[in-house]
Amino acid sequence: MTPRLVLVGPPASGKTTVGTAVAGLLDLAFRDTDSDVEAVAGASVADLFVQQGEPHFRALEEQAVGRALAEHDGVLALGGGAVTSAATRELLVAHGRGGGVVVWLDVDVSSAAKRVGLSRDRPLLAVNPRAMLRTMLEERAPLYAEVATATVPTGGREPGDVIADVAALVRAGQDAR
Questions:
Q1: Whole-angstrom distance, CA of residue 48 vs CA of residue 58
Q2: How many domains does the chain fold into?
Q3: 77 is in which domain, residue-wise?
């Protein structure tokens, strides 16, 4: 059992919006590894960052991704920083090589900044969201590219268009199996 679709991308790229919609379209379950981490830890992602630190959160996230890739057969959305783990990237590359669909939802800084606003739920963006987003996008782009079997741009696009593109990729992946 492996996910039919794994979504990766930075904060505000649309992973939850697109993931839940595609899951609904294809009659699949949706799962988010940030929610998995929160359930296991009994605390929000933001609180984990503040109280335990990023390394602790990333260790929990790595475990959550491994479990979800092994247990879940629907649509899986990963936290924006999940790809910073070499072990997670290995799992995602193997998933793609095995015929799985891993889609990088790519977003530009301007679109992401508009979507994020001043959200306190995104701990890495709390101080200067636009500057942090720019740095994050630049640093993580090669990591997203490494694990993705396809890239779908989301910046400046209507959600329905992105959802249609991603659903088509999942359907094509099913046909290839």
A1: 10
A2: 1
A3: 5-172
Whole-number pLDDT of residue 119: 46
Residue 10, both tokens? 């930075």
The residues, ordered by sequence, that sit 6+ positions from 43 with a Cβ below 8 Å of its Cβ are 51
CA distances 44 to 37, 50, 120, Å, are 8, 10, 11
The helix/strand/coil state of 101 is coil
Give the whole-angstrom CA distance, residue 30 versus residue 150. 19
> 177 lies in a domain?
no
Query: What integer is the mean pLDDT of 153-167?
Result: 93
For the cut 70, the answer to whether the pLDDT of residue 75 exceeds it is: yes
The CATH number covering residue 20 comes to 3.40.50.300
Asked whether residue 98 is domain-assigned, the answer is: yes
pLDDT one-digit tens code per residue, 90-133: 999 999 999 999 999 998 877 766 656 544 444 444 556 667 77
Maximum separation of any 2 CA atoms in the chain, in Å: 46
